[in-house]
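Whiteboard transcription, Tuesday session. T.W. wrote the structure tokens on the left side:
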């Protein structure tokens, strides 16, 4: 239990540092572009901010993408409800969501069907994949000949994937929490009814 809490806390710290660093560099870039700072080598500072941001986002994609891709492949390859090892691996990837393994057309209670998780993981993998064109464009083109429209399109689609995934995941978690709360409430009510009838 302690090890899990420490890992979870460590992940939150790393995620927090990543967000703070990304927002700080992004803000600095915007301020430089808006001529808030009177600096002589503006182009150099802009390029430096772009390179740092690209390196941060590329590292983040390379860290999370293997796990996301493995989960996507597990969901794609899952074909029967008799493969207990595959079911355990899939459920481990979604610890706070109950996964439906029996009836995909009519999931029980709030169980999330495989097809929904498959689509969700596709969105998360697409978010990572969209970072790679940005990386190639930034690292292999000089800033004077760089096709910035590639970066703009990839970043816009990546942001859209991020927002969609965050909202979707939040909605699934909230549904699970509400359902479990209702079940717990009805169980308490049944207990009280049985207790008073004695």
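and on the right, the sequence the group agreed on:
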């Amino acid at each position: 239990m302690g090890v899990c809490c420490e890992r979870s806390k460590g992940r939150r710290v790393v995620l927090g540092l990543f967000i703070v660093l990304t927002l700080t560099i992004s803000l600095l870039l915007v301020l430089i572009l808006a001529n808030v700072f009177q600096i002589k080598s503006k182009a150099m500072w802009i390029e430096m901010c772009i390179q740092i941001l690209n390196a941060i986002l590329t590292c983040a994609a390379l860290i999370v993408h293997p796990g996301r891709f493995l989960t996507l492949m597990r969901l794609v390859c899952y074909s029967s409800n008799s493969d207990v090892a595959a079911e355990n691996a899939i459920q481990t990837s979604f610890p706070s969501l109950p996964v439906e393994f029996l009836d995909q057309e009519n999931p029980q209670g709030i169980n999330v069907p495989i097809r929904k998780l498959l689509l969700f993981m596709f969105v998360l993998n697409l978010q990572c994949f969209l970072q790679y064109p940005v990386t190639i464009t930034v690292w292999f083109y000089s800033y004077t000949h760089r096709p910035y429209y590639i970066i703009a399109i990839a970043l816009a689609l990546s942001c859209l994937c991020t927002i969609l995934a965050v909202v979707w995941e939040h909605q699934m978690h909230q549904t699970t929490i509400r359902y479990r709360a209702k079940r717990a409430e009805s169980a308490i009510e049944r207990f009280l009814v049985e207790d008073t009838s004695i």
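Someone added at the bottom: Confidence is low (pLDDT under 50) at residues 1-7.
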